Amino acid sequence: MTEPKKSRALVALQAAVSLVLLAWLFSRPGFRGDLSSVLLSADPLWLAGGFLLAGIVQVLCLMRWRIFLKMAGVDIGLQESTGIFFAGLFCNLFLPGGAGGDVVKIGLLAARGHDLARSALSVLMDRLAGSVSMIVLGGTLMAWQLPWLTTSPVVAGLVHVMALYLLALGVLIILSVALSAVGVVSRLPSRWPGRSKLLELSGVYFQCAVQWPRTAFALCLSLVMLCCFFMTYYFSALAYSMNPGMGRFLALMPTVDILSGLPISLGGVGVREGVFVLLLGSLASVPSATAVSISLAGYLMSALWGIPGAFLWFLQRRHP
């Protein structure tokens, strides 16, 4: 099967997963009627606050990426980088997995004459910063609220799996840094599995180490950004009069974000709603319709900021 056909088949499969999960949720007795009434009961002030907070998240994401663009040696202005960033954000609404927008950003940078390798390096550094932030903030939140998270046997098992995932991710990053530092990666045989990816990571680590003040600042931005992103869903919960406590709610978000980020559905739609139903229902006895409403409203707060991406990139193409 050719690459385009494989890509189309994957998208079709992920769309099917999203549709099946949504169909399962909506087929539950009385769910559709409950959902309609709950959705309309939202407090618009909390929704507006969450929407503005989601905008701040995107500004911080853009600032972080511009730092890594400079570190990678990509000379690009604020207007151009903003257009490309929001174009990638817009494409994330339709492409499977969070990496879809990254591919678009690299392609648009290359189309504008920027070096492909340096463009990819900036995106890889941006991705790495996001992973480190999730390990630090996600791990801290889950550890802080672990007694509450483990009051449900089902949720306890899921949380332990997520904790192991974050631990394994941290170990892999530390191990790859160590191997790169001593030059092991460059001496690997050309046919070694994943050698090209390890070499790319070596370049990322080198730039991060050489330009460590920028790296430290970008990581601080990343932590603030991730916390604000989690808070948008907390604002959504407040809009529907559901408040188990800010600390408890934020401790749920690493599990939600990691699972909805798996490339098994389109944009995490269906998966995100199912995870919210499981977590909030098991830990806080939240009705399914309310949990889904919180998930949908939180997702839309961020997704709406991607819509200007199409318009901004159109302007970029019209006025190079």
Topology:
Layout (H helix, E strand, L loop, with lengths): L2 H24 L4 H9 L4 H28 L6 H14 L7 H13 L4 H29 L1 H4 L3 H29 L13 H16 L1 H28 L6 H15 L10 H14 L3 H16 L4 H11 L2
Helix pairs in contact: 2-13, 3-6, 3-10, 3-13, 4-5, 4-14, 5-6, 6-8, 6-9, 6-10, 6-11, 8-9, 10-11, 10-13, 11-12, 12-13
Account of the 3D structure:
The protein has one domain (43-318). It is built from 14 helices and no strands. It has helices spanning 3-26, 31-39, 44-71, 78-91, 99-111, 116-144, 146-149, 153-181, 195-210, 212-239, 246-260, 271-284, 288-303, 308-318. The mean pLDDT is 83.
Task: Describe the structure in brief.
The chain has 320 residues and is mainly α.
Total beta strand runs: 0
Give me the Rg, rounded. Answer: 20 Å
Report the sheet with the most strands, covering strand number, pairing sense and barrel closure.
none
- The count of helical stretches stands at 14
Average of pLDDT: 83
- Give the quaternary arrangement of the chains: single chain
Per DSSP, what share of the residues sits in E-state strands of 2 or more residues? under 5%
| Gap from first CA to last CA | 38 Å
Structural class category = mainly alpha
In total, the number of domains comes to: 1
- What is the H/E order? HHHHHHHHHHHHHH
Gross morphology: globular
Which residue ranges are poorly predicted, with pLDDT under 50 across at least 5 consecutive positions?
none
Give the helix level as a range of percent.
Answer: over 70%
Features:
single chain, globular
